[in-house]
Amino acid sequence: MPYVLGIDIGNTNTAAAVARRHGTTWTRPEAVPLHAGSALVPSVLHLSEDGSLHVGEPVTDDGSRTTRDFVRRIGDDVPLLLGGEACAPQTLTAELATWVVERVHAFEGGPAEAIVLSHPAGWRPYRRELLHRALFDLGLRTVTLLPRTVTVAESHAARGFSGTTAAVYALGGNSFEAALVRRTPRGTYESFGVPQGLDPIGGTDFDEALAGHVRTVLARELAATARRGTQAALRGLLAECDRVKRELTVDLAADVVLALPTGPARVPVTRAQFEAMIRPTVQATVDLLLRTVHGAGLAPAQLDGVLLAGGSARIPLVTELISAALPVPVEVEPDAQLTAATGAAMAACQVVSPRPRRPEPVRETAPTSGAGRATIPAMRRPHHDTIVPGDPPPRPPVRILPLELPKASRLALARSRGREG
């Protein structure tokens, strides 16, 4: 069945969703299982000794062959090292995107009719162009890039949000974005105002706060059992705290459980205790959201709602503090960590089947080139502010040297041998 693909590559996790064509309409986007039956795969790349490229956390690693947090580095002229190789962060991001596309291709039995990839709302054209060219070099030549806050709004609209103007609150694993969106004449959304962000602040900070509490409670026991098994248990502490964090979004209490050499250790935590630990951080994100609204010259009452995304956005304290600062409806989806990906799939439907738009006054266009196509408008999708490969934008004052992988690159070998999950 024909389908379109939406991809969200976050700093910590990657998600993908597809919408399938059903006659003249599209089905509601569905998440694609990317890793061990999960809709999320860690945004991590590992280069093995034989040159094959793996996606996700490695079982064992010396640290030099694994890279993460590369999306935020796009636009930085300092390369990342992977297995001793200098790699541009946009190349690594494109590798991960290509892995997702190939995996979905195998799952669906054919290529997508359109692909939309989300990116941080604060990106300027230069960074988008870097990623577009990296995608183009790997064979992904028709990918539309959209701000993550726009894809979040598209997902909420598909679930019934009908507002014209909204604030988007996107709380990732280690990043936070706040932006404003408004509905266009076609019924899609676009950004306006100046997006704001806090980096690195996100759900991992909440995990760390809870882990610090657990270490304090178990300090005496941990000091008395300085064994290898204790260190192994502590390495899994953050993952256990992430589990408890999610459990506390629906329950009033939960236990952090560690398997110590002396036996299981349980540290009970109430939602009130957890929220006290993270309140300053959450308040900082809400304050930035409010400044974003005021910075655009809007009063809170002019918003039709606040749209949430990110797994930690389901923490009740988030909605509580946002509602206190902005007295408008606050919307959060059941699978908030998938919101950006499902919204990207919705936007991909519109790339293939754009909605009709109301007539608008004729505007002055840019000089034409080629077969009479306007140079600047031709680089825009029919309904979103998106740049596709073309002439590179003006570079920033800092001199950026082109980064190319060696011809004998092991990353190139990884592509020829096939990516592995």
TrEMBL record:
Keywords: ATP-binding, Chaperone, Nucleotide-binding. It comes from Micromonospora coriariae. Residues 354-400 are annotated as: Disordered. PANTHER family: CELL SHAPE-DETERMINING PROTEIN MREB. One of its GO terms (molecular function) is ATP binding. It holds the Pfam family HSP70. Residues 390-399 have a biased composition (Pro residues). This is Hsp70 protein.
